[in-house]
């Protein structure tokens, strides 16, 4: 099978790159992937894969096969682009490679179809919207769409600093992330008589010092920092009574995140209130860390070795970046999941407006996904 997949993919090189370019030029931001959803639906129709789409949101799930002898395999891609300034023009821009991920999944399906694979169970082709918001995976979980899946594989292109073109890993150990938004309420006064007021900027600076001084476990990477602060009005001679702030928290494991988040909240409350101000805190978003799954890493790792060569399987990168893919196994205990890390020579970095990568890595991605799906289908 390895040889057949390789041959099929290499013959389709031009078609694969053309489809990638189309998706790249037609990026849409989170929750607005309407044309992208239409396009995917058409592609699934052409492959005769029935699908389910949704009246209340973007995204689509293809359902290939109706057998019950084998497992339900999920193959997942994200779909959204980012809104950013690209050389002076604001636009939806695929700088996180989700266009590459969609291309890889579409051709993986086409390859398996044309090579005559019959699902022993079902193959769920998951085109998930809004990864960048951290809420896309949760929307599919809340719709109950992921409950029957046994094995789930996703893929993300990696920056050159992490992995060169030609190599791949059988997992990506993303960290956990959380964003807190806070509001501070003080009391206004004339700046000449500041003792009559409560200055929210004193609370802000106290909060910043307190969160920067939290002693994190030195063996588990973790960071806390203020990323947004706003206080005061137009007059510089008034003690300001209202401020808003944002805090970004990262930790490499879910347990470390849980502990750290609790300490951050306590520090904010005690430091911010020391001058008598009132604090309101809201957890704006949360991303869970990757959980290792050795069994899935073995299947995907073997696929990488057979497709790219034994030396080109590299250890999973450990990254402080977040990815909402990891909500799937976190919310379903029987679900076994891993995410392929694909070496692409991607520069200068993910989310950079001029991000680019080696397009031949699309072919590598399809080869790996197709063989991994083939292997899982035999389990
Ligand atoms: Zn991203
Ligand atoms: Zn991404």
Ligand inventory reads: zinc ion
The overall pLDDT, averaged over residues, is 97
The N- and C-terminal alpha carbons lie at a distance of: 16 Å
The residue ranges in which pLDDT falls below 50 over 5 or more consecutive positions are none
> Rg to the nearest angstrom?
24 Å
| CATH evolutionary superfamily of the largest domain | Zn peptidases
Strand content: 25-35%
Number of helices: 10
Number of strands: 17
CATH topology of the largest domain: Aminopeptidase
Question: Tags for this entry?
Answer:
alpha/beta; 10 helices; seven-stranded mixed sheet; Aminopeptidase; 379 residues; Alpha-Beta Plaits; elongated
Descriptive report:
The protein is α/β, with parallel strands linked by helices and 379 residues long. It folds into two domains: 2-174 and 290-377, Aminopeptidase (3-Layer(aba) Sandwich), CATH 3.40.630.10; 176-287, Alpha-Beta Plaits (2-Layer Sandwich), CATH 3.30.70.360. It contains ten helices and 17 strands. The strands form five sheets. Strands 1-2-6-3-7-17-8 form a seven-stranded mixed sheet, sandwiched between helices. It has a four-stranded antiparallel sheet with strand order 12-14-10-15, covered by helices on one side. It has a two-stranded antiparallel ribbon with strand order 4-5. β4 and β5 form a beta hairpin. The protein is elongated. The structure holds zinc ion (2 copies). One zinc ion binds next to loops.
